[in-house]
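Contributing new complexes? Match this layout with 2'-O-acetyl adenosine-5-diphosphoribose.
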Amino acid sequence: MDNSPGTLRTILEAARIVAFTGAGISAESGIPTFRGPNGLWRSFSPEKLASPEAFADDPRLVWEWYDWRRQIIHKAQPNPGHRALAEMEGRAVGRFTLVTQNVDGLHDRAGSRNIVKLHGDIWQVRCTACAVQEQNDQVPMDPLPPRCRCGALLRPAVVWFGEALPADAWGRALEAAAQAQVFLVIGTSATVYPAAGLVQVARKSGARVAVVNPDPTPADQLAEWVLRGAAGDILPRLL
Ligand code: OAD
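Output block (do not edit by hand):
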């Protein structure tokens, strides 16, 4: 099997492509990742900040953390990695799906369109009582915690530990992974399930897997191409 980067480039010109991204693609935009030496989970406890129990205990504390992250993201710009994926989609309209674990919205801002957001969107809020879910771009958030027109607390429309992924997004991701001919695993530690299981689904369904990451991940063993380096360097070169 020819696993040179040139072959990957050729395949990308015609194949059904899924790009599966994680926090690493936004690292070069200055947004902290979760794991690793400077990762958010080194300084913060997921149970205390990103779980339904934490929100029930102290909604203000949880919102302060999300507001802090929203402020960082608000100042950030999409980087060459995000832009390369938007361009790849432009060349492969109808055969390209971006499945992301990121909630930061930088893929949208870079111009990607066919996006499946597995872990929600930090710029959306959802009522804890009624059916309201809406965009909220206020930075900083005021008041904190915010309330719905119905009076109940609003929460970030993101997936917390112990919660299921949004069913429609998960369904679309599974279908895209099963139909992919090339599955790009970009900037993710590939350790958080069920999302990480998409790599196996794609592989078992016959996709050729490529990993883009400066560090080893469990997805490497399923990959024909392991491209070591920053997404912002490697993805523009793949085009
Ligand atoms: P992680 O923080 O677990 O992993 C980030 C990955 O990005 C690591 O493998 C890094 O080596 C890699 N990386 C760092 N800089 C990079 C760069 N410039 N280019 C490419 N890769 C780079 O983040 P995720 O895999 O996204 O879930 O984490 C998955 C989920 O765990 C998140 O969506 C979040 C978290 O808890 C929820 O909040 C539900």
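Reviewers usually confirm one structural detail per submission. For this one: The longest helix spans residues 59-75.
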